[in-house]
Write a structure and sequence with these properties.
By secondary structure, this protein is of the alpha+beta class. Helix content is about 25%, strand content about 35%. It has one domain (about 5-90): Gcn5-related N-acetyltransferase (GNAT) (Aminopeptidase, 3-Layer(aba) Sandwich), CATH 3.40.630.30. It contains two helices and five strands. A five-stranded mixed sheet has the order 1-2-3-4-5.
Length: about 90
């Protein structure tokens, strides 16, 4: 699991901080599913790979918890489809 991605349970989102800026993925744990509702990176982080690094951390967290990912967010869905090593997590 990426130690840089943290689970902010109060806000129901995973967060990655880079240079004082945040990329985050809002989620809901529903049974054995991890529903990813939205992924967003602060404007200065866009195009830097921060959202991809965040999603890798989210996927590792899901795997460590034995969960499948249900991506409601287009970015999250596309990221999992592009990274075949995590395709087994796609619900």
């Amino acid at each position: 699991m990426s130690s840089d991605v943290r689970d902010n349970t109060d806000r129901h989102r995973f967060e990655l901080e880079r240079n004082g800026q945040i990329a985050f993925a809002t989620y809901e744990r529903r049974g054995s599913d991890l529903v990813i509702r939205h992924v967003e990176a602060a404007i200065p982080l866009r195009g830097t790979g921060a959202a991809g690094e965040l999603m890798k951390g989210v996927a590792e967290i899901a795997r460590s918890e034995g969960r499948k990912i249900t991506p409601l967010c287009g970015y999250a869905f596309a990221w999992i489809r592009r990274h075949k090593e995590y395709s087994d997590l796609l619900n």
